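FAQ
Q: What does a multi-component entry look like?
A: The components come first, one per line:
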Amino acid sequence: MVQIFAVLIVVALILVAVSWVAANWIPIAAVIAVGLGTWGLALLIRHIRMMRYFASDEFLAHKTAIASFVAEHNELARYVDEIRGRGTFALGWSVSGAQAHLAAFQNTSRHKYRRDRNIASYQTPFVHNCSLQVVRNASTDPIKYVMKYFNIKATETDLANVEDLGDGIVRLEDAITNLWQREASITQSFNPPKFIVKHYADEFMKHVGVVLSPIMVPYPVYMFEYVSAGGNSSQRTTVTLDRETIDAMIWTMSEKIKFRKSVAGQRALMTSQLRTMIKERDNYTCRYCSISLVAEPHLLLEVDHIVPVSRGGLTAPDNLQTLCWRCNRTKSNKIIAG
Ligand SMILES: [Zn+2]
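Then the predicted structure of the entire assembly, as tokens:
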């Protein structure tokens, strides 16, 4: 930042010098010099105001007052990293081009057409290369086509995998939303001057002590892609497995399984609807430590399988409970360790 001021002021000075030497350029150079100088000065003043704000007693006192809330935020940010690290966020694969790496394709056409602008992506498992018709159909019937062409079968095992994926996605989404809410409320509680919010948002968080991690939900993304033989045209349908799409897939799979009258058809489905129902049933209160949303408005609550699915636990209301993120984190760390 300070370097920018220095550069601007030096450039302004050079221009002033040049305008002395070359008489013809005086008016133009003078105008530019005055402009740059003013701009540099404005930036410098803003920078000084920013430093004074972060050093002010008011800022420092409030920083101390909310230190524990900030510490909790940072702990939650670490938890988000853990969820990301442990969860599986991929499912299914496309067989199209699975052996494409064994061949080399070259367009030896002598025409000067701009060919191969569109090159099919064969070596990624989440792109299905197909006809234009399939691309179109996938856009009207995404769940059916993703299942069909990315090998997600209507079986109990695959349904459990989709539910597991949904669990990871929803936990991450909820935790990230919770982090954002906490950050917004931290900013709000300081009520910083407008120029701070506008120009120094990141510096602000750094001075408060908030650890900002670049967090994104790694949604599985499936693509149906048609690339014409010459590579001149390409069309694509993209399906993202977000919360809503996962729920729709769970319903679709369960309908097919139910039709076959199997056990999985009879149990509850781990959908957003069920999660909300469990939290409501438990009065938005952690069943371990009894903290509730009433006591802590920013509390992150999760729905947990009492006996984990990996140990034969069923998705049924009596095997589900509401836990706060702290208790759930401790519980899953124990399960992983033991
Ligand atoms: Zn708890």
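Q: Is there any commentary attached?
A: Sometimes. For this entry: The chain has three domains: 2-55, 57-98+115-266, 268-338.
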